[in-house]
Amino acid sequence: MRTSVPGWAWFLGVGLLVAAPYPWLAPGLLQQCWYDGIAVVGTAAMAVGTRRNRPEQPAAWWLLVVGQGANVVGDVLYFMLPDRPSPAPYDLPYLLSYFLVAFGLLLLLRRRNRGGDRANLVDSLLVATAFALLTWVFLMKPVVGDRSMALPAQLITLSYPTLDLLLLALLAWLLTTDGVRNVSFVLVAVNMAAFLGGDYVWAFADHALYNPGNLGSRLIDCTYLVAYLCFGAGALHPGMAEIGRPVDLDRVRPVSVRRLVLLAGATLIAPALLAWQAYRGGGRVPDAYPIVLGCVTMFLLVVARMTMLVRQVHAQARVLADQADRLREVAERDPLTGLPNRRAWNAELPSALRRAARDAAPLSLAVLDLDHFKAFNDTYGHQAGDRLLEETAATWVANLRAVDLVARYGGEEFVALLPGATEAEAVALLDRLRPLTPMGCTFSAGVATWNGLESADELVARADRAMYRAKDAGRNRVEAALT
Q1: DSSP code, position 166
Q2: Can you give the pTM of this predicted structure?
Q3: Please, which residues have CB within 8 angstroms of residue 267's CB and are 6 or more apart in sequence?
Q4: 76 Cβ partners below 8 Å, 6+ apart?
Q5: Residue in 271, 310, 298, 247 with CA at minimum distance from that of residue 123
Q6: Which strand ranges, in their side-by-side order, compose the sheet holding 478-480?
Q7: % of the chain exceeding 90 in pLDDT
């Protein structure tokens, strides 16, 4: 059976094939038009996908579209100005692109997480802080120390790595946050990672840390082309509308081993940089204070994250305890009457016997059975029978003492535990209940008072035999058990 290839896949595949020859084109107008043409098509695909798929947060997507478009404008101006002064006209659309993309991502993340995803935000800040330390040492510090640069040129130059760090933090937040992770999500994440990767590679090259050469430079440009194409394909994918949908933050989620490894690696960047500088400087650390600041910041973020993890464990414990309580209640409650069931009764009776022995107090037990319940069901129906059981249970509980326990033993049979009541007091208490039975019905009951020696089963058996004597004697009566 043949299946058609979706439009987003066609766009991505054809776009990558068209971009493949770019590194080997001769430098000049053709190469630049080739690059800018792919960038324009990728941005246009983003606009088409946003309009067609109608995401729930359209403002965020349109900010991303306009941000990518501003980046294309910056590329065109960059090519048209071979002298490239600083500041230059292309700096405005480039920097505007950063702000628009960052704002769009922030809107998308706030909606995706309802503005309450603090744990993942701390994780992303931890990663960004580690990279900020590297950025300062290798990219920003040389600019600050360059006395040949005018202040405006320094500020513009420093703006690029600063905004890259902002986008890196947002990308880390996007990757660590919960929510839908479909094809569109992956393509958008690849777009952000490719743009940032290209920015950092170019930044290191611009600071003369290495020379990529002509072919290497064009290969670096290809990362931006891949980014444009991935974002266009991601916006064309129908799953893009799901990326901004809110997720349930009330559900407690475990922390993955992969994330712990990532966070551990980020925190090790500062001491690794410290060791590298000490090795290169013969024991002298030129960036000691920035490294100390980075370490302190990451330490505080780790403390904040550990606090959140401890709270998460406590939340998990509360959830498990609540679930256990609900399961226990379901297991020990009769669903029709709401009374304790036979399981709960069997658990409570031995404890009551031990308390009576300890306090040397009397303890009586009654077995109650509704009279002619089968005939009532046959005459009025099972729904009326259920209502009789419910109303009978509620009436008995309301008219017994607070210390007394009534449980449904099975069918129309109930048991009552009467602590502190002698046999005569128990019989009198049940006699007061008989005329209160709802719907004109009656019950027969047997009462047994514990002799201090018999087991729980023996005590129930004596009360049960007394109940059957009450039935045999004409029903609607209470009989005391024989000793």
Answers
A1: H
A2: 0.60
A3: 126, 130, 298, 302
A4: 36
A5: 298
A6: 405-410, 413-419, 363-370, 443-449, 478-480
A7: 41
